[in-house]
Sequence to fold (225 residues):
Amino acid sequence: MKKLIIAIDGPAGAGKSTVAQIVAQRLGYTYIDTGAMYRAVTWQVMQHDVDFGDADAIQKIVSTIQIGLRYVNGKMQVTANQVDITEEIRLPEVSRVVSEVAKLVVVRTAMLTLQRQMAQSGGVVMDGRDIGTHVLPNADLKIFLTASIDERARRRWRELGDKGVLVDLNALQEEIASRDKTDSERAVAPLVQAKDAILLDTTKLSIEGAVNEILRLCEERGRSV
Ligand code: CDP
Fold:
């Protein structure tokens, strides 16, 4: 079967990274978490205490950052200029501002180039907000994964709690809703379902259920390409 390019988009906490990772594992594909790339840039910007409106300073940071995404003992490790920031990029202080950094043109342009290079040889599952619409418009399969805001906030709350990061559920729900709004309303590559994407609502669907549905669609697409 030809190696497919699979794009999974959707709002925060819909289960994209969990589902995308399992799908990639089952198919022997590479998983690319583009959200981690935007988080890495945001973390780096935060280290320099730069104003998000200072396009020149941000451009400088973006042009010198080397983002590494690799698997170490079955877990994805994220590095920025060789510094391991896997845990740091998930912290609430990064989540609170990541959408403000991700909406900047200089940031998006650089990430777009990198992400297209990473997907070049196929056999990839890439997740994010604009993969099916902008990064990989010719993907073989596009999924738009979503769930109710209540369910997404609860999932993220449990996920953070498992890592010992305790946050207020209501505050978390507000942060997710505000991020969804910024992501959906930005001028460049906003979060929107691609016309040819398949909508999967995971509010009542288990991880395994979502994975199986995507694998079934892959088989269907694989046969027709
Ligand atoms: O894990 P979670 O769903 O909370 O978010 P993420 O996938 O880590 O993405 C963090 C943020 O990066 C998003 O809220 C977007 O602002 C931005 N992002 C983006 O703009 N485009 C992408 N392709 C992926 C993420």
